[in-house]
Each structure stands twice: as C-alpha cells, then as structure tokens.
TrEMBL record:
Belongs to the KAE1 / TsaD family. GO terms for molecular function: iron ion binding; tRNA N(6)-L-threonylcarbamoyladenine synthase activity. PANTHER family: TRNA N6-ADENOSINE THREONYLCARBAMOYLTRANSFERASE (PTHR11735), TRNA N6-ADENOSINE THREONYLCARBAMOYLTRANSFERASE, MITOCHONDRIAL (PTHR11735:SF6). The keyword Cytoplasm applies. Binds 1 Fe(2+) ion per subunit. Its cofactor is Fe(2+). This is tRNA N6-adenosine threonylcarbamoyltransferase. It comes from Xanthocytophaga flava. Residues 22-307 form the Gcp-like domain. One of its GO terms (biological process) is tRNA threonylcarbamoyladenosine modification. Gene3D superfamilies: 3.30.420.40. The gene is tsaD.
Length: 332
C-alpha cells in the first residue's frame, strides 16, 4: 500500500509518501511571507499553498522514488484549519485521485499529530494520554486505539501556542514568537517573575487570563523603567515559559493520576518547546511514566503524520468520496 499525503491546514505546504506504514519522504515548504504581518494572513496562506503544492508533491514522489501510477490512495487534511488553505489541499487531492482513479482518505489534523508517534520507535502502548499543544489547540486526549480517541480536557478560550505568540508580540519579538521565547528562556531565571496559574474545572485549560496578566505586568514595569524588557528579556521569557509549562503539566498530572495511565505523550507544534520537553521528562522520572516525545520534524505541521493517520484508516477501509469538503472546524 502506497499513500501520498497532503497537509495544507495553515502555513506549511507538505507532502509525504508512505509505503506499508513506513515514511519514504516528507517534504515541507514554509511560508515566510507572514513574518512581516506578525501572524498568519489566511488569504496569503492559501495563495502560497497554490504556488507550492505542485512542486512539493513532485519532490515528495521523487524523494520516495515512487511514480504516480504506483499510488494506491491519496490522503489529505480535511480539517481543522484555515478554510482557504484547506481548500487548496482538498481540491488538489480530489482532482489527483479522480485522475488516477484511486480512493481518497480524509484525515483529522489533530488526530494525525497524535499518530505521528507511530512513525518511529519507541511507540506508546494503548491506552495512553496525549497532550496535544499547538497554536490553535490545547487538549488532553485519551487514546485507546489508532482510530479511537477521546478529548478529556481542552482549553476553554485560547490555545497555549497562541499564548506563546501573543506574549512574544508584547515583547516586540518577530513572528513566530514562540520559538524565540524558548531561545531566550534557556539563559534566563524561570523563577524571577511570578505569573498566575489559572485553574479550570476538571482537565480543562484557560490561557486568556495569563495573557492579560502578562500585558499589565509589562505595562507596569516599563512605566517604571523604559528599558525593562531589553534588560530582562531572558528572565521574562524564562518566567512566562515556566508558567505556561506548569499550567500544562498540572492538568496532565491530574489526568494521569485519576485515570491510572502511565503512558504519556505530547504532540503538536508546541511539543517542540525545549522547556516543555525537559519538564515532561523530569515529571516522567518522578512519577514513573513512560514518556514519548516526537522528533522535531514531526512536531510542527507535516504530511508524514497525515500519511500515518491515513494508513490506519485505510487498513480499516475508511475511505471517502469525491463529495467530501474541507471542514475548518472539524469535530472528532
């Protein structure tokens, strides 16, 4: 079984080829144009996908040494994501599948992030808990099978990735700011400044309050000292990152304790954050968890994870028809 997978949910155009559960290629084209706007501009993202999708797909096939005639199915991200961006990938996949007379496989973007853990060894054992963290999502998911997942906790407002990017913007750091906060944090004191640890019922999260608190903190300190941010950048970044990571892990630890599950994974773009990766490993040692952290190349949006999710759907015969449409707010 050879599957071509396409990812176009936000600002990365990606294509991958999978054969019998093994990734043969994974090509990603990023969109630098959004940097000067301080965030992703949906219309520009969809235009960039239109420009990049053909060369990205061609390179993925070339790298995998696979021809179009050898493909057995084409997979694509159906949602969630930006509507215009999703439409480019969905339309391309449908047209290519129609032209080759092969079936389509629609994939849920966030479920694919979780299934990225099955690209390489070691792989988590079922059941496991996965903290999925990105610019648009923050969830604790109970995974009992490749295709059986349940959200047991999630953010009630903003995602943690947005919190990283918005706090970075308040610090006048360029987009995307999350990785820059992580970079500065590595030389700072994480306990220098204290920020509120917002508590929500159950396993749910909230990040809107900490963004507001951070904004007022900066306003107060820069009023007293104009150069405050410049002179304390490392400590500020380390402190806000420490707080966000602690918020994430407190609920994850609660979920692990109450469910009795010790197989713990993270996924999504924010799982590339070094502070989160290090803290999760430390907690894992303390609590006797088996911790699974994806390779950096599979943390951010990529088609390899779409291919892996499609593979497990294909094994169960879960294909879709040509009448399928993009769903920017696709449910589970």
């Amino acid at each position: 079984m050879i599957i071509l997978a396409i990812e176009s949910s936000c600002d990365e155009t990606s294509a991958a080829v999978l054969q019998d559960g093994k990734i043969l290629s994974n090509v990603i084209a990023t969109q630098a144009i959004h940097q000067k706007y301080g965030g992703v501009v949906p219309e520009l993202a969809s235009r960039a996908h239109q420009q990049q999708i053909i060369p990205v797909v061609e390179k993925s096939l070339t790298d995998a040494q696979v021809t179009k005639s050898e493909l057995n199915a084409i997979a694509f991200t159906r949602g969630p994501g930006l509507l215009g961006a999703l439409l480019v990938g969905t339309s391309f996949a449908k047209a290519m599948a129609l032209g080759l007379s092969i079936p389509l496989i629609d994939v849920h973007h966030m479920q694919a992030h979780i299934l990225a853990h099955f690209i390489d060894d070691p792989q988590p054992k079922f059941p496991f808990l996965c903290l999925t963290v990105s610019g648009g999502h923050t969830q604790i998911v109970k995974v009992t099978d490749h295709l059986s997942m349940e959200i047991i906790g999630q953010t009630q407002d903003d995602a943690v990735g947005e919190a990283f990017d918005k706090t970075a913007k308040l610090l006048n750091l360029p987009y995307p700011g999350g990785p820059l906060i992580d970079k500065y944090a590595q030389t700072g004191d994480p306990l220098r400044f204290a920020f509120p640890l917002v508590e929500m019922p159950g396993y749910d999260y909230s990040f809107s309050g900490i963004k507001t608190a951070f904004m007022y903190f900066l306003k107060k300190e820069t009023t007293k000292e104009e150069a405050f941010i410049h002179e304390n950048m490392a400590d500020i970044c380390a402190s806000i990152q420490h707080t966000l990571v602690q918020i994430l892990l407190r609920k994850l630890k609660k979920a692990a304790k109450e469910t009795g599950i010790r197989e713990i994974a993270i996924a999504g773009g924010v799982s590339a954050n070094s502070g989160l990766r290090k803290s999760l490993q430390e907690e894992g040692k303390k609590l006797d968890w088996n911790v699974y952290i994806p390779k950096f190349e599979y943390c951010t949006d990529n088609a390899a994870m779409i291919a892996m999710a499609a593979y497990y759907k294909a094994l169960k015969g879960h294909f879709c028809g040509q009448d399928v449409s993009a769903l920017p707010r696709m449910s589970w």
